[in-house]
TrEMBL record:
Annotated positions binding K(+): D228, T230, A262, V265, G267, S271
GO molecular-function term, one example from the UniProt record: metal ion binding
Encoding gene, per UniProt annotation: rbsK
Protein name: Ribokinase
Residues where ATP binds: N182, T202, R203, G204, G205, A206, G207, G233, D234
Length: 284
């Protein structure tokens, strides 16, 4: 079983469903509203756990009503929370609008995630004991860099999902072993990604591709009824990390299948499939 340390964000997603997204200045009538735990870090942690890995989470929640619920979703998924702090103030939130086609727009407010500055000795030990460190960019870049330095020094692989994309210090890119990007990020980060040994690019309904020392691989998209794409990329990334030790081709198949299944249910963390569901779909 792979051991994964996630150093990342956790948000409460405020999800509104609507036939179509409003234009600037326009009001439209929505059809449903829900609060669903999310955040790229937490989604990827849950995806890796459900795909079969042992997972520890390093992050922060606030003292507001969402904080306890967010902590509980990690505990309910049997994810280690020794590295989860509670900081004064609001938890991270994401205001998400999902239209009839399952496409979304998202506004993230960092809240407690922005307060995750620096790692404790306990956090460093979790990174050192892991096979893979999994990071995204919804927490301060300095914290991601600190975790990546620790991983590199202790022989832990660094998997970075550079989302939302932003400019990063070259030292961080030098520490990255595996990157997962969508097509937009792949274009935006083209020169940075050239130095990364293993790069996986997700292509929505068209599946995903890999390039690295093993050559180039592609995995086709799975036919599914899409209701909400939120968190599908996170599910891909978590499942990939959980199965990376089986080699890029097997990990890519797990990741694509998990990501596709995640689009068939509304809500980021709520839609993440179990290992049994992924295995069933892989066998079909
Ligand atoms: O990738 C999906 C996630 O992005 C959502 O869960 C939301 O919280 C934002 O972080």
């Amino acid at each position: 079983m792979a051991r994964i340390a996630v150093v990342g964000s956790i948000n409460m997603d405020l999800v509104t469903r609507t036939p179509r997204r409003p234009r600037p200045g326009e009001t439209v009538l929505g059809t449903a509203f829900d609060t669903v735990p999310g955040g790229k870090g937490a989604n990827q942690a849950i995806a890796a756990r459900r795909a079969g890995a042992a997972v520890d989470f390093v992050g922060a929640v606030g003292t507001d009503v969402f904080g306890a619920e967010l902590r509980k979703v990690l505990e309910d998924n049997e994810i280690g929370t020794a590295g989860l702090r509670t900081v004064e103030g609001s938890s991270g939130t994401a205001t998400i609008v999902v239209d009839e086609a399952g496409e979304n727009t998202i506004i993230v407010v960092g809240g407690a995630n922005a307060e995750l500055s620096g790692l404790t000795d306990g956090d460093r030990a979790l990174v050192a004991e892991a096979d893979i460190l999994l990071c995204q960019l919804e927490i301060p870049v300095e914290t991601v860099l600190g975790a990546a330095r620790c991983a590199r020094d202790r022989g832990t692989l660094v998997l970075l999902n550079p989302s939302p994309a932003r400019s990063l210090p070259p030292e961080l890119w030098e520490a990255v072993d595996i990157a997962v990007v969508n097509e937009g990020e792949a274009a935006q980060l083209d020169s940075e990604l050239r130095a990364v040994p293993h790069v996986l690019t997700t292509r929505g309904g068209a599946g995903a591709s890999y390039r690295g020392p093993e050559g180039e691989l592609t995995h086709p998209g799975m036919r599914v009824e899409v209701v909400d794409t939120t968190g599908a990329g996170d599910t891909f990334t978590g499942a990939l990390a959980a199965h990376w030790h089986e080699g890029p081709a097997a990990a890519l198949a797990w990741a694509c299948t998990a990501g596709a299944l995640a689009t068939t249910v509304v809500g980021a963390s709520a839609s993440i499939p179990t290992a049994a569901a992924i295995e069933r779909a892989l066998a079909e």
